[in-house]
Amino acid sequence: MRCAGISGRARWLQPIADVVFTHLHFDHVGWASHRDAPVFPSATYRVHQADWDHFVAGPRRSQAAVDKLTPIVDQLELFDADFTIAPGLDARHAPGHTPGSTIYIASSGGRRALLLGDIVHSVVQFEERDWEVIWDVDHAAASALRNRIADEAANTEDLLAAAHFPNMSFGRILTTDGPRRFVAV
Ligand SMILES: [Zn+2]
Ligand SMILES: [Zn+2]
User: What topology does CATH give the domain 81-185?
Assistant: First the structure.
């Protein structure tokens, strides 16, 4: 019975095939590796070339990122253009917060869910068009990109979530009462 239980459980534990990074700030790479070994030994780890150059390979590299990401180098695939990871899941370059920041768009039946990473840190930034955070590498580009994404999604069925939103809840952007606002769903 014990063996049957283990094999039954194993059927559900498919190896993770792909890990995609929104960007390489330290709070977004923590589980890339653990004790100098990849957390997902069968996965391809994908990140935009510009973030790899900025955080790992460049002269202003982050030692924390280097330490966390060096163990996955043999499983790394860099990209420098928008691409489709799998049917219904697209990567779109969204530079500003970091040079290689990427948003991931899941789509099905004409509807979309946008995973924004740190393009926006607080839902308040949808309402306050000029509010910034100190962690944006290029403040002007980050602000322009954030507003472009928000305006594009406003009053559509698009669902948005960002890594630091409370409970990582999805929501829509509406302007029906005036200024842009985020309405959790
Ligand atoms: Zn960040
Ligand atoms: Zn973050």
Answer: Metallo-beta-lactamase; Chain A (3.60.15)
